[in-house]
Amino acid sequence: MGGGGQQTESSEPAKGDRGGPGGGRGGSAVYTWEEVQRHCHRGDQWLVIDRKVYNITQWAKRHPGGIRVISHFAGEDATEAFVAFHPDPNFVRKFLKPLLIGELAPTEPSQDQGKNAVLVQDFQALRDRVESEGLLRARPLFFSLYLGHILLLEALALGLLWVWGSSWSLTLLCSLMLATSQAQASWLQHDFGHLSVCKKSSWNHILQKFVIGHLKYGIKKLKYMPYRHQHQYFFLIGPPLLIPVYFHIQILRTMFLRQDWVDLAWSMSFYLRIFCCYYPFFGFFGSVALISFVRFLESHWFVWVTQMNHLPMEMDHERHQDWLTMQLSATCNIEQSTFNDWFSGHLNFQIEHHLFPTMPRHNYHLVAPLVRALCEKHGVPYQVKTLQKGITDVVTEEVRGSVAGCVSP
């Protein structure tokens, strides 16, 4: 079927003409959804943003957010994801202009494959309200307090050892304090990793250089998480080894491959600083053991906090749904409290974190009632658990998966 009835399928233009793999060749043509949806393969990818049709076949490889993110929307409407992930859509549109090959025919709906147009419009209205009320703008004071909290915990841990010595009980207490400070730093890094997808952040460099030694490299290299097989590795590999082993290997490997020698020097300076602080108390091997134990504790908190919002939600395969429904099916919230908010990096508001990935975390609690009301209006489940229930569900899901794996043929 031709675009907007102007061409028949037999008269479809050759590659390199309208919308071939080489990119855009002008934007005067019109297309139907049926025609757009046929271009959803690795070597032939179109998508729609605000009714404009773009050929991203070659651009996908250079996409700053990664080829997998943009390719997920091949043959589909990517408007909601485009708006959600780009802090400055107008800036990004100049990169889209050469890829433009046409637009949807006037008779075609704006949403594809039977999406709820009213729900999509209501969520867009909510996003417009969020933007107009300034909820996408960060407050530097909040993040300054967070950074101060991290440094205070480090200073207190060192002070305890300096005044009362390095007994087993004080060493354990200091390890818990250092693990807490590093977990807090991980949440900050997580924030600015989202914010810097399409916009560089000087705050990101402050955190990665001074506090946590480039955790970003470990996270950015996580291309695939085999959730279907999580029951086979979660307790053994996930909490104890994710940060101290896997992230560190990926960090060093990526820095060497990219020849980021300045970043490597900053990363090593972080460990040198920690090592120099604790060498007088524990010696060489003792300091190495302390750092490893702190990372071990931090890894547990990091993994449990991030997983209890997602298990046992639907994560294996994203269905073709509108943005709101898709995010709500894959995650849930953990109830609000001072402890949950601060020590989980506000990731207890995982629903809002997914819906508005560029929103500063200190505004999640403000938008959460609005999101919940919209979900109730359209009958979309909005799940909130207690902290205990969230952790219990992770354990239950892993045990259930292990049992199923053992009895399956």
TrEMBL record:
CDD domains: Delta6-FADS-like. Its main location: membrane. Residues 28-105 form the Cytochrome b5 heme-binding domain. It is found in: Membrane. Residues 1-29 are annotated as: Disordered. Pathway: Lipid metabolism; polyunsaturated fatty acid biosynthesis. The chain crosses the membrane at residues 141-164, 233-251, 271-294. One of its GO terms (biological process) is unsaturated fatty acid biosynthetic process. GO terms for molecular function: oxidoreductase activity, acting on paired donors, with oxidation of a pair of donors resulting in the reduction of molecular oxygen to two molecules of water. One of its GO terms (cellular component) is membrane. Keywords: Fatty acid biosynthesis, Fatty acid metabolism, Lipid biosynthesis, Lipid metabolism, Membrane, Oxidoreductase, Transmembrane, Transmembrane helix. It is a multi-pass membrane protein. Belongs to the fatty acid desaturase type 1 family. This is Fatty acid desaturase 2. It comes from Oncorhynchus mykiss. The lineage of its organism: Eukaryota, Metazoa, Chordata, Craniata, Vertebrata.
